């Protein structure tokens, strides 16, 4: 799940094998599914292979994430500073990436 905790509505642009756009109103979220392999240590976005993600506010790109971007990174699903566990069940975990005002600077 990707949650918009910023003060603005945002747009996410997913670039890769297929391009996609998602709008997230402030305080709202979108769900992107990911799966782990049989060892539980690799995950990927279900719908397409992504090589970069841009965040835009008022049609202006303010942040671009790449798989190797340092710091808080939407691609770094194993980092608890980037993604946190919101729900943890025996066979299901919901991870949340929160986009804040700080991320948009």
From TrEMBL:
> What is this protein's name?
Uncharacterized protein
